[in-house]
């Protein structure tokens, strides 16, 4: 069955006259009659009852007509839809992100993308970097905001571009400062006040880069961390700090999450840095995805970072 045959059927059904339908379609009557006969033969039923003086729809033809019209209406918009898809104006993008970027550049990125492409559906989910990479390789995600593996070595055929780098700060129980267990000076604290304190940390399996940057920082200070608790979500880690279970090294953007009982302090000396970027598969990227990646990577030049900084 071809769209041409459906157009022929609808024209005859609306005109109930083969001659007028042929004139409307810009063809002669014999090819139109042959087209309808071939359609009926393919379906194995009659769409019209014909006499020398009249043409009328069969019961099946009468019920089939709205469906045929609907198919033709949908087909009519396909060329424009293809052009809009090629410009990234419609479609769906599945985006995952590590938890703490929701306190950083993610909200302004989403806002700007939706303002520019309101008809693109952005399906968002939170996941650790390792889960995102597996989902990208498996085709279950289109893009991920991840903490990259060492040396930014994402698996082929993924591509990775950095977006933002942030110094880590230390989240400490406010009660420890009040009790003199930690003595900050000007909002900063020396590592000597932290080296023996219990640490709350991401498990290495879920966030190897973030885990390693913290443990490497301890090693550079000639210390080994006393890990009191692992936790997968940044918000959970901060809440555990609020309960006095230990300290945590977190990206500076987490200052915007300030539950009672938590104080954020800068680290004296050189602070460790974590990086977040966008990973995707260029070989299967839609234009809508390319637009999102371009907008995310523009954060390296300032606008999204400035928006996030104002939010913090």
From TrEMBL:
Keywords: DNA-binding, Transcription, Transcription regulation
Domain HTH lysR-type: 1-58
Keyword Lyase set for record: no
Keyword DNA-binding on entry: yes
A family per Pfam: HTH_1
InterPro entries with a match to the protein in the record: LysR_HTH_N, LysR_subst-bd, WH-like_DNA-bd_sf, WH_DNA-bd_sf
PANTHER family linked: HCA OPERON TRANSCRIPTIONAL ACTIVATOR HCAR, TRANSCRIPTIONAL DUAL REGULATOR HCAR-RELATED
Family membership noted in the UniProt record: Belongs to the LysR transcriptional regulatory family.
UniProt-recorded name of the protein: LysR family transcriptional regulator
Species the sequence originates in: Neoaquamicrobium sediminum
